[in-house]
């Protein structure tokens, strides 16, 4: 059976307050006070009824946290009787102090002020109506000051408790926000990895497929040419495995550390000559033109331009048809990078392929270009052929 520790502690405290109050009541009777030079007139001698009233005044301490104001009111009733019957003032002050402190500590400001006002009024009314006459009025003032000080201590504890709760709540909110940011960063990283994997696999597999088809056609008539095609397939496969190994290696990074794993060195515009040479070996005559004064590109724009050219050339290789040629144009403008891939193949067939629901390459290109605020145009050319063109903005010429 589960025990409410706070209620148990309050019950024990009520017993301790009752015992202490009865002990003070029994020890400091009128005779002893007179012997110590304290003039007290009209005070009754200790008896059982007075002790019972003290116990009744201390009993509400057991529920001081659950019903603090009600407990204070219940404790003030026997205290008022003690004062009114002449048992002296201050005999039940221990219970009253504890209950007033509880109201100030566990309730709002309005209720706490009501409790303080009730305690002061009850004490002053009992002191005025009591038949006991003390030697000096300063005792009443000291008691009132003590009540206000106890009330202030309770309010201070409540404010500190509220401040600590606010700090805990703020820390919890920050922790939840940090966890949400971490999850979003991981999701974004995985989306980027998936996009890179698609581009790498689609390009290299397309090149290998074309080279394998060429090797099959010349296997019987020209074994040396077939051997060269197979060597190119092997080389392309190794390149694909190397790129995929670099990208997938990010997934093995310990994501428990609060740092985003970054991919290794990624290809860019500087690697376009080797990409064009690879497409030539695969059977697509390709030319590269660079116009304008080259500048250092941001890493993201650099990679996006490379992937766009890679996807455009892969599309031309697969769908432009036999005898088609491709031209890659990189134009550096003051505030813009113009990337264009053109071929003179079957534009309608290519457009149908890129616009199909399974055209993940087009989706990836659109995402990359949109990410950097660029403009993308994909479609057939007026005089025949197909074009993939993107205009990527550059800030301050970079």
Note down, in words, how this protein is organized.
The chain has about 400 residues and is an alpha+beta fold. About 65% of the residues lie in helices and about 10% in strands. It has twelve helices and five strands. The protein has helices at about 5-25, 30-35, 50-60, 70-85, 95-105, 110-130, 140-220, 225-250, 270-280, 300-320, 345-355, 360-370, and strands at about 285-290, 325-335, 335-345, 375-380, 385-395. Strands 1-2-3-5-4 form a five-stranded mixed sheet, covered by helices on one side. Helix 3 packs antiparallel against helix 4 and helix 7 runs antiparallel to helix 8. The two termini are about 70 Å apart. It catalyses: ATP + protein L-histidine = ADP + protein N-phospho-L-histidine. This is histidine kinase. Its EC number is 2.7.13.3.
